[in-house]
């Protein structure tokens, strides 16, 4: 049967936002459903290490670039729009508006059969001007895509519960870390949370909607809860003592976002739109999606079951994507200058090498396990202070942790770093995403020297921006022996100690 016939034929699907939380989970679901997938990504290399990478086509482009979108739309049946410009600056609404128009126009020109978009659930009866900028922009993007001339499915969800989602991480850390909580008044707002599995099921199923259906659908779980209910229910599922929650009306969304940023790994820049979205009731008004994507037995999942499944994935280290999977808006993306004759200005380096009494494999395990709960192997206070300073400056801080406790892949966030390159068994290159007056990288190598001994090699690289960048480098240079020297020494010692333990147990 042809791709444009009826029935359960394989569809050609374009996915934008595949490096993000939902998009990274949608691609394998579409492949499992028998569809062919093309991903549009600004940095295709960040999808290289995903388990499904060899099954999907990846093309370079950006939704604000009409030429690359048009090329990506060629031969596509269904186009998924899963990107937004939140956090890119005060004009993010205009960026979202422009990108949505380009996407709709190019989809129509390419003969795409359907556009599918995941937006936010908006409260009934609330004028759009009173909505948070985040929700207002999501609603406008949905309207633009519905008016594009291409049949569109706009799914509107409130709080998505799944391992690694920003909403789940915010709920999890607030509940686990604070047995007594002074909370904003929005903890009494009624919300209809939905399991990420049900969101993905609706996204995949919407690909086969009849051509005459073009509308928005509310997507939610079976329960309406307040945020307070959600925290208490989370504590019960997680086996925590009952939490005491004390609402304080003076905590505005802005203030509460900083409070969330202090307690959880979710930075204030992301917590604020989440908090602002909770000012108004977000409850589904219909469940019409079930006419076209029928609910299987046991679905939609209840809140407790969604939390239970998410916690199981966290504890089993099987988190497929995280809220931090997407690039931080405004974060540097320049590749590391590798040309020895690079003429881009000053380039400062700090290099360390040590012989290690362990195999390369043992050394690599320590390198790949760096960060998160394992820390950075030197002067923890200095790393903690740098993380707090980054938070105060509006950065991500040091608490994003890791997606997986043992394995890394290109594109993973790692505390305030991003994995830029990984050659298993040899090289880990991290690019800094903390607030800096310049660009910074950290490289760690596991090598074998001419005598057959294992060598650990480490290189920190900094490309300063202007006079402030120069001043920054020289102001921290006196601490490099303590921080970077200690890191090289302790990584080597840890690898040697683990090798000795392994030999003793053999």
UniProtKB/TrEMBL annotation:
Matches recorded under Gene3D superfamilies: NAD(P)-binding Rossmann-like Domain (3.40.50.720)
Domain spans labelled NAD(P)-binding: 17-158
SUPFAM superfamilies, per the entry: Bet v1-like, NAD(P)-binding Rossmann-fold domains
The organism's place on the tree of life at top rank: Bacteria
Name the UniProt record assigns to this protein: SDR family oxidoreductase
Organism of this sequence: Streptomyces galilaeus
Source lineage: Bacteria, Bacillati, Actinomycetota, Actinomycetes, Kitasatosporales
